[in-house]
Structure formats: C-alpha cells, structure tokens
Amino acid sequence: GAAGRRRYEERFTPERMTDGLVDFLSAIGSSRASARHLSQQRPPPVRVPSASKPARLQPAVDAGERRPMRTTRVALVCSVVARHEGVAAVVRHALATMRAAGGFEVCVFTARNDFADMPAHVVEGVAQLLLHPAFLAADLVIYHFGIYHPLFDALIAGVGRARQIAVFHNVTPLELVSPEQRPVIEASFRQLFNLKRADRIWADSEVNAAELVARGFDRDQIEIIPLAVGRPPPAALADKPGGEVELLFVGRIVRSKGVLDLVAAVDLARRACDVSFRLSIAGNLEFSDPAYVEKIKRTIAERSLACVRFLGTVEDDALASLYHGAHILTIPSHHEGFCAPVIEGLRSGCIPVGYAAYNLPHVAGRLGRMVALGDRAAFAAALTEVIAAVAQSAGRPDAPLLPLDCGRVSRRAFDQAARAHVARFAPERVGGAMLRSIAQLLAAPATQPRNAGREAGRAAESLDRASA
Predict the structure, then answer these.
(1) Residue 248 has pLDDT above 70, yes or no
(2) What is the DSSP secondary-structure string of 237-298?
(3) Fewer CB within 10 Å, N side or C side of the chain?
(4) Is 308 helix (H, G, I), strand (E, B) or coil?
C-alpha cells in the first residue's frame, strides 16, 4: 500500500541503495587502520578451565553502592547536540554525571555538535558509527531518541555486542505537525520499534511509558527516569514586585506548542482584564516552523497586540532573566512528553498556566492552572484570573489569593511547594537514578535478542494506524 511505497522510496530505490553501499565501503576503508590498532590494544582472552563454568564478566559498577569496579566504556548516541535544543542539555547532564561518578570512559556520537567544551565524534551515518573503534569498544550504548535519524538504526546491529539503553523523549503525533513534516514523523514511528532491541528503555515520564506500552512494548523493559533540570538559578514569586504582570512562553515555535492559541487567548484576556500585563515569546527559531512563525507575527500585528513581544532565540543568560522577571509561564502545548520549561518556570517563581495535555498536569504537580485542551476561552479566563490574583498578591506574600489547581494559596506557600516539587528533577537526584539503573543492567545476565520479524510486523501496523 501507500505506506510500503513510501518506505521503499525512503530506503530501497537503486540510488539510495547505491549511496548506502558506497558509504559503507568508504567507512570500512577509512577505519581499517584504526580497527587494526584497536585490536592490537585489546587484552588477551580469558582462559577458562574446561571443568569450570565460563567466567562471568565483572560488573562495571556496583549495583548497591554505585561504586565503579572497573572502567566502563560508554557510547552516548544522539542525532544532534545543538545549542538551545532540549536533548543537548540531557546529553551534557549524562556526560557530566558519569564523569563525576568516575569509572566511566564516555564518548559522544552525533551528526552535529555545537559545543566546543564537549568533545564528540561527528559521524555522517550509521556505517561510520558502527565501524568507529570507540563505538566497537563500548560496554554500554545509550541512545537518545525523539525523532528519526539514521544513527538509531544501530540499535538493531548492536544486539548481543554491548548492553543498550534507549532514552525515549516521545514523538509528536502526526495530526500536530505540518504536511511537510509528516514523512519524518512517519519514519520516526517506524524507527521507534528499534527501541525494542534495547536491554532497557528510560522514559522521561509515565506518559511516555504509557505511549510505549500502548504500542506493544513490555512494561518491564521500561524505567521512568525524568529529565534533569538544573537551570535557571532559583527565584521566588514572593520576591517579585508588583506593577505590570509578566507572562512568558518558552519553546519551539511550532503548531504542537499551541502558540496561536496563546496569542488568541491573550487577545481575549486583554479585553477582560483590568491589570496591565505583557507577554514575551522566546523560542529556538532554528528548530521552529518558519511558516508558523510568520503566521504568529502576522496575527500579532493584525490584532494590534502591543502587549506581546516576539523575541525568538535568546541566549541562556537572557532566558534566565526572562524567567526571573516573569510571574506566569504560559504552556498552551497540545502535546508534551515531559516539558522542561514547566520545571524551569517553577524553579524561577513562575505559575504555569496552560492546557491539561499529555504530561503537562503531571509535570506541573497541581501548582499551576490547567484547562481543557483546545479551549481558548477557558485558557483566556484562566489567564485573566491568575493575572488579577498575581497583581492583588503583590506585597502580600502570605495572602492565599492564587487560584491554582491545588486550591487557593499564597505566594510564599506556592514557593515552598514549588521548591519541593522541582527537587524531584534536580540533576544530582536524576543522575543517581541513572547510575543505579546502569549498575543494575551491567550486573544482570545478558538477555536474548527479541524476535525481529514480529516487531517489524507491529511497526507496520503502527504506521498504518498513525497514517489513517
């Protein structure tokens, strides 16, 4: 059918097969000397007396104490490590965690690296990755998957060689992307089934875990390890002055983030609200939809929304200043597998207000104001009520005036609850969970490769459902 034809054109036309073969042979030729050098450095095989059982490999990390017992060689694989992009922060945190723990030798593999302070092997395709000496030497490979990339096909080839962990960051549903993006999203849902070849999957949230289970993944294979959020520096709502109420949006400027819903809700709120407020829109333009960006700018101009400023990409220091100056973080997303900006906002003394979509109610922990997905009128009403309460509570940090999902609370009570909630996502705590999971995996007996034919069939069925 149509799905099969698309897959053929993506992977199996004569031109694509020829290009792949040329890349593969070129990578073999260029890596021959490196592979020979690596083989000369490998320790001699362990000799096992014939009367005894084969010796079990010493685990690289003690599962109870998380103490390194020998050097563990780790390969971190992701599509890109780009500035102002969420996965980059996750990869950098994982790298820092293992370096701080000691006993790990970590190499990062990616198609793009924007950070001079983080060495990485830039590989152009899966053939270069599979033949790279550092990848071949790894005891553990950790993949960060959120969208299709050829590098993630290495999951299939790696079965039985090194232990594999796949980190699932979720895939935006087809109905929430532009027609131009549909092919890569369809390819992402097909490639998602490569994750079944991993020994363990780290899901960012219960919502992401449920998504995998709904697609036929084994729940016992999945572990919930949230993203680490250690920025910006903490701030308190109780310390923020009165005057104009500041609203903030942080995220990619794409349809699934609901930015047009936000602009429409702000237009409604300014007509109903007696309090002066301003909205700042900040988002990485490189990973945004240009047509959607232009539509937002045009809508702001057409509605004469002088209270809205479109900032686009901002650097880390400027973003921290925006968080610290804001009272309300607007989250009109239609889909979020985790949503780090909510935790960043709560760290900064911002009240999340948005849609109760996917993981948003969970990550906000009832410390925000969430309304039904897509209800712009309800979103505008919630914004109006919270804006008024923020203005009324200025200079009255102990007055229970903030109308949140957990009930009416004071600014000071909000700050106290927010500090307790965001502590769950502290880099040290998340890093500890990662190290424990790695230790347990390396200490466990190796599992047998799963049935590839059955998984391929399920992948096709999933694509048919997604394309329907």
Answers:
(1) yes
(2) GGGS-SSSEEEEEES--SGGGTHHHHHHHHHHHHHH--S-EEEEEE--GGGS-HHHHHHHHH
(3) C
(4) strand
